[in-house]
Amino acid sequence: MSSPARLFRRGSWAETSRIAAVLREETVGGALLLAAAAVALVWANSPWAGAYETLRDTRVGPASLHLDLSLGTWAADGLLALFFFVAGLELKREFVAGDLRDPRRAVLPVAAAVGGMAVPALLFVLVNLGGPDGALRGWAIPSATDIAFALAVLAVVSSHLPSALRTFLLTLAVVDDLLAIVVIAVFYTASLSVLPLLMALVPLAAFGLLVQRWGRRGGRRAPWWLLLPPAVLTWVLVHESGVHATVAGVLLAATVPVRPAEPSHAPDRDARRTEAAGPPAQAMAGGPGAGRGPAAHLEHLLRPLSAGVAVPVFALFSAGVAVGGLSGFAASVTDPVALGVVLGLVVGKTLGITAATWLVARFTRAELDEDLGWPDVLGLSLLGGIGFTVALLITELAYGIGSPTYDHAKVGILTGTVTAALLATVVLRLRNRRYRRVYEAEHVDRDADGIPDVYQRGSADG
Q: Quick check: is 209 in a domain?
């Protein structure tokens, strides 16, 4: 009789190594994000608040191309396009060459992402039914998880989280980021100009052809800057069409091949590692060496820029909100919009992710991995309630900068994020002793071949 399927199974060594490297960069980016948000909050509530608003609203760019945008808008439309480009590369790599190409592995993070978006949106709508006109436009605000922020919290509270849980958290966040960009494109496009959108297909196709040629030349030896003109032109035309310009980042990512154009010949030691790691290893191996396709090269180049520059700068321009002391904070956080955001992030995310996980277990008759329990699912679900970057972006699109509702929603985002982080801290700290044992077992390498023993005993297959 076959053993039951396992949820949160340990992945292959290649996938685990790659995700560990990604999470290290995102954790550093999360620290910068927290610092930028703190600076913005302090600045916006200081005697120099006027200077903050002046800087945020300063317009630069050619008016003839309708690109005389404020610095805050450049951060939201331009820098976050890079963020979504990297997220698109990550998701494509996961489903084309990563462990999630197996539908049995993909179903859990996808279902959890859908549940983690639907329930918060439903709670927000319920709280704001019958409210002021336009309040319901913010229904999608509590829908997305901020992976950088969540990992910064995770680094503080539980540095020994098992690899399966880290992988699940990253994949969940990437999937709901991409679902969020679909929501932005469909529900937050005020007016659509079809001609620029059709014209954007030309530079988009040119980018796809160039990136394939760039990949065939090995990435590192080819002039990567040749990819910039069609990418920028695609962004400009999507922006001109009325669709939010960050959608261009996802479209561009979709054209990037994941697998290398030609098979590479790794040294014997690397061949041993990829053989033990499983089929995805050739395409997913870490380091700027053999077996990596154009998506891996571009992600390696751009992730530090996305996590370390784009997202923190966006936070600097978007997180600043004048609270107005304790009385002002109380008035803001009890506004139905802010209350809907808080409930969506803290309660909705937790219910949505946990319920989706339970439903997957129920209908697939799968069991949690023997090292984990439902409190671990609860802790990760609370981490999923840390919403910041995409939530701030949707707030701007829903209500417009400077309106009272916009400020109330930002207070709700900050309150909900901090509350979810504190609750996740309590749950995960209570489980940290168990995590330490699993973490230590995952790093035992008795034969000193560079691959922990658990990845060579078939444990990756459950």
A: no
